[in-house]
Amino acid sequence: xxxxxxxxxxxxxxxxxxxxxxxxxxxxxxxxxxxxxxxxxxxxxxxxxxxxxxxxxxxxxxxxxxxxxxxxxxxxxxxxxxxxxxxxxxxxxxxxxxxxxxxxxxxxxxxxxxxxxxxxxxxxxxxxxxxxxxxxxxxxxxxxxxxxxxxxxxxxxxxxxxxxxxxxxxxxxxxxxxxxxxxxxxxxxxxxxxxxxxxxxxxxxxxxxxxxxxxxxxxxxxxxxxxxxxxxxxxxxxxxxxxxxxxxxxxxxxxxxxxxxxxxxxxxxxxxxxxxxxxxxxxxxxxx
Length: 288
Prior knowledge:
The chain is α+β, with helices and mostly antiparallel strands. The chain has helices at residues 3-25, 27-33, 47-55, 101-104, 107-116, 140-148, 232-241; strands at 42-43, 65-75, 78-87, 93-99, 135-136, 159-168, 171-179, 186-192, 251-261, 264-273, 279-285. The strands form three sheets. The chain has a four-stranded mixed beta sheet with strand order 1-4-3-2. It is globular and about 55 Å long. It starts with a helix and ends with a strand.
């Protein structure tokens, strides 16, 4: 049985199980169980499939879960994505778990493919310490999966410490600085991001904030309920004048993407405070 057939069988079996569960325990309990743990992780071939499931899973109070951020976990050779959300009505926090095997394959397969994408194999311990040996990726999630599953010589996985964008030789690179938690050794990982840099269809992948999955600070125009309304030129002016409430620092735009929820369409702008580095997310309602 090929992979496509297996995935369709899995989707059918999952849907059948949910229907049986609805009859046995009720819709509220099933909604709470949906993708609620690694064991119940839903297979996801695309980011869109993740958001579709989140959008179709209401809070028990009927509210809409709004994505706040995401991070990656690993168990054996399986890669999981955990999306942090908050209900727009009751403010309940909820985690959704997704099995990324349909998207990335198993971890070993993923790493082998990424290493093969380098134009020049790097010498020494680090797999991609410069632009010439950059690993080609299709999303920011792929960057963090690769970095976090690269072991230092002591056997400890590297942890991300920071990020910078670089344009060199007509290509765009994401440079992640990393550190070994065991002995403090520092390293840099170069990733070629030409495939999704400035590509609006890829913006849902640009919501990674930190491996720990901490959501951004509570957001004025900074939640769906208080999203900025009005003409596009007024929204652009608001964005240009927005500052970080904590220290007054200017906000630098990292990424823009569209969130389509039950309550309407929104442009989500991820920014970083230039003074303290805190991620700040702004919401703008579309179509008003």
